Backbone:
């Protein structure tokens, strides 16, 4: 009896992992496409401010590795033997994916940031997140990038997005001061 419970719990864990990686496999290409589409839509609409993640579009390269991992988990859940050749193929696929990521991320970053700069945008480090993977924030004018606004960056970004006309630098500074005064 005890052996059946372990097998049942392992199967439940396996099914959970299968569903999780199946969802990841489906979401990666969609997320990659959405990020690229968002950046080009922003460049076409030319807003005052927008966010961009250079790493996100390269996630599509992980789809084959996650698809194969999902298949391996399914084989394990179904108690079908996983052949060593299939594992070796998966390891090779992971290695190729890693190499492609190491090449594609800097390449994409260079080209997309060059395109954004050519459209007249400037990166605003004060509003960009300090953690890895945080999106870069691009503005049409350095006047919108207030150094002391880093503590209220999400609020000031939202405020700038809501503006129908381009605010004057003094208005942006005034808004940052107001948000800082009201922040905890």
Residues:
């Amino acid at each position: 009896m005890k052996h059946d419970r372990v097998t049942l719990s392992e199967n439940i864990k396996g099914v959970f992992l299968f569903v999780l990686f199946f969802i990841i496999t489906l979401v990666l290409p969609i997320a990659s496409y959405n990020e690229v589409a968002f950046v080009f839509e922003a460049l076409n609409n030319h807003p005052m401010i927008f966010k961009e993640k250079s790493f996100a579009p390269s996630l599509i390269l992980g789809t084959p590795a996650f698809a194969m991992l999902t298949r391996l988990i399914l084989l394990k859940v179904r108690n079908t033997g996983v052949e060593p050749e299939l594992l070796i193929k998966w390891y090779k696929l992971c290695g190729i994916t890693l190499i492609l990521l190491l090449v594609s991320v800097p390449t994409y970053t260079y080209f997309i940031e060059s395109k954004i700069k050519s459209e007249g945008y400037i990166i605003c480090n004060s509003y960009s997140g300090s953690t890895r993977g945080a999106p870069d924030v691009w503005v049409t004018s350095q006047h919108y990038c207030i150094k002391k606004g880093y503590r209220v960056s999400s609020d000031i970004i939202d405020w700038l997005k809501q503006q129908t006309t381009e605010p004057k630098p003094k208005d942006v500074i005034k808004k940052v001061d107001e948000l800082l005064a009201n922040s905890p």
